[in-house]
Structures are given as structure tokens and as C-alpha cells.
Write a structure and sequence with these properties.
alpha+beta; three-stranded antiparallel sheet; two-stranded antiparallel ribbon; 2 helices; 20% strand; Meiosis/spermiosis associated 1; Meiosis-expressed_gene_1
């Protein structure tokens, strides 16, 4: 299977916040499933991250506008259940 054909096998919802959930939240806000899909669509090797926290710093949406994120947590506890976790 080609790397551009990677599809998720299953999906689940986040139950509690973690750093991984924070980054998934940021990718999904920008319209992507996760970092894997972002790299496939945008053909990039690295994602801009905050050096202090490791959180995603900047993402380019499909319409070529940018989302810029803060160094601190942005995914509130009330938003955690909306985050989808994809398994490949």
C-alpha cells in the first residue's frame, strides 16, 4: 500500500486531556485527522512546534490559510470529548 493511501482502521474519542490529545485537537481544528494526514496533504516533513512545550505552533489549512496556536494548552476540558483518535 502506498503511503498516500493510509486510511484509519478505527476511531475512538478522547476521554481525558494529554499532550497527544492537545496536538490532535489542533490538527482537527485545522481540518485534518492527525499529523499523518497533514503531512500527506501538505507534503511537509516537519510540523512547526513550540520548543518549550512541543505543541503544534502553526498549521496550514486546506484553503492555504494558517492557524497559529499559543504555547499554552488550548483544548479545554469541555472540548476533550470532541477529539477523535484514529488508529492505523
Amino acid at each position: 500500500m502506498a503511503s498516500s493511501d493510509v486510511k484509519p482502521k478505527s476511531i475512538s474519542r478522547a476521554k481525558k486531556w494529554s499532550e497527544a490529545i492537545e496536538n490532535l485537537y489542533r490538527f482537527q481544528q485545522a481540518g485534518y485527522r492527525d499529523e499523518t494526514e497533514y503531512r500527506q496533504v501538505k507534503q511537509v516533513s516537519m510540523v512547526d512546534r513550540w520548543p518549550e512545550t512541543g505543541y503544534v505552533k502553526k498549521l496550514q489549512r486546506r484553503d492555504n490559510t494558517f492557524y497559529y496556536y499559543n504555547k499554552q494548552r488550548e483544548c479545554d476540558d469541555k472540548e476533550v470529548h470532541k477529539v477523535k483518535i484514529y488508529a492505523y
